[in-house]
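User: Quick sanity check before I run a bigger batch. Here is a single chain. Can you write out its predicted 3D structure?
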Amino acid sequence: AALAAAGSAPRGRQRLDPGVRVTTVVALPGGGAAAVLVKDVYTASLAAYDVGVGAQLWERTFDQPITALAADREQPILIAGVGYEGQLCILSAETGQDLAPSQTLKAVINGLAVAQGRTVAAATQDGQLALVRYLPEEGFDL
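Assistant: Done. Predicted structure follows.
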């Protein structure tokens, strides 16, 4: 739901199927939003929405949980932490498709942030902070 500038009344609401939960939301460049949708214990989806009209643009399902999500503020790029092995994925915020091969950090990713342009900061369950440079066309530079 979006809040009106003069008050706290919702402007619109995206109705989800019964049993679907939203666990994470990030703002996208250009005014969109992406959300992690949990459908059951084994699957999760990532979906993008046009917040101006409240319409879903795309949805992509993963067979493992999405544990973290971040958006690049300058480019239409999403970074997702997926699964129990800490798969780090670069996705198009416009289509949800992979922009580069994923990398594994070998630990669940608890938090993500894009720092200084093309560097991803990833906090992992084993207490580490991984700083990974990414180039959308080429992938990650560990």
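The chain is about 0% helix and 50% strand.

User: Great, the batch can go ahead then.
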